[in-house]
Amino acid sequence: GQNIDQPTEMTATEGAIVQINCTYQTSGFNGLFWYQQHAGEAPTFLSYNVLDGLEEKGRFSSFLSRSKGYSYLLLKELQMKDSASYLCASTDSWGKFQFGAGTQVVVTP
Amino acid sequence: EPEVTQTPSHQVTQMGQEVILRCVPISNHLYFYWYRQILGQKVEFLVSFYNNEISEKSEIFDDQFSVERPDGSNFTLKIRSTKLEDSAMYFCASRRGQGVLYEQYFGPGTRLTVT
Q1: pLDDT tens digits for B30-72?
Q2: For residues B35 and B61, is the Cβ–Cβ distance under 8 A?
Q3: What pLDDT score does B97 carry?
Q4: Which of residues 51-70 of B touch A (CB under 8 A)?
Q5: Yes or no, beta carbons of A87 and B44 under 8 Å apart
Q6: How close is the nearest chain B Cα to the Cα of A73, in Å?
Q7: Residue B43: closest C-alpha in chain A
């Protein structure tokens, strides 16, 4: 079956690091994307992985292991504005996204 | 920076009415998508569209739904007879090419409320 699992909520303090894990089981896998979504707004692109390994983009990094069906998003030097939902999404060759339910990250002072 | 736009931002309609949600994808993009997000739930794929035809659709996208690209710029989603459970945020997305290296850009969404 098709499944994408990620934790429902995580809490961390400003300046800390948080790692959001995602496991997926989808057909026609062609890549793994991470999006940020603030309440009532559209998802905005953060990072993606096609091959195994780590991709770093400023304060955000994402890791993929295709053999394990596993990815994580690492958020460093957390800021209050990082409080949002983080969506893990797998994509197929047609570009269709299958999203996880999202992980709500709460950043506290 | 080019962006995907959607109108209206909020649509309220009565059950059984037809609604048309409009999207203007980024001008040189070739692949188009509709997603929906029921409040508090995950973003769900509805349909993908390329070369003036549907390339893939989900189980949600039944006979009540249709998509059209009437004039080469707009991309519309029509719901023929709305149900209460169609209340959701509807996102349009587009991308330049098919490969995973092409980023998918999302519009700001239309909040549909069916009463």
Answers
A1: 999 999 999 999 999 999 999 999 999 999 999 999 999 988 7
A2: no
A3: 87
A4: 55-56
A5: no
A6: 18
A7: A99
What angle is formed at CA A63 by the lines to CA A103 and CA A86, rounded to 5 degrees? Answer: 20
Residue A95 CA to residue A30 CA, distance in Å, equals: 8
- Distance, CA of A16 to CA of A5 (rounded, Å): 24
Of all residues in chain B, the percent with pLDDT exceeding 90 is: 86
HSE value, Cβ hemisphere, 13 Å, CA-based, for A76: 7
Would you say B64 and B80 are in contact if contact means Cβ atoms under 8 Å apart? yes
* Sign, Cα dihedral of A92, B6, A104, B1: positive
Beta pairing, strands A9-13 & A103-108: parallel
Question: Inter-chain contact B103–A45, Cβ cutoff 8 Å?
Answer: yes
Burial label, A104 (beta-carbon count in 10 A; 0-12, 13-18, 19+): middle
Query: Which residue would you say has higher pLDDT here, A1 or A30?
Result: A30
- Which residues are CB-contacts of A102 (< 8 A; sequence separation ≥ 6)? A6, A37, A85, A86, A87, B42
Give the closest of B44, B100, B105 to A31, CB-based.
B100
Euclidean distance between CA atoms A105 and A7, whole angstroms: 10
Beta strand B5-7 with B43-50: parallel, antiparallel or unpaired?
A: unpaired
Residue B112 amino acid letter? L
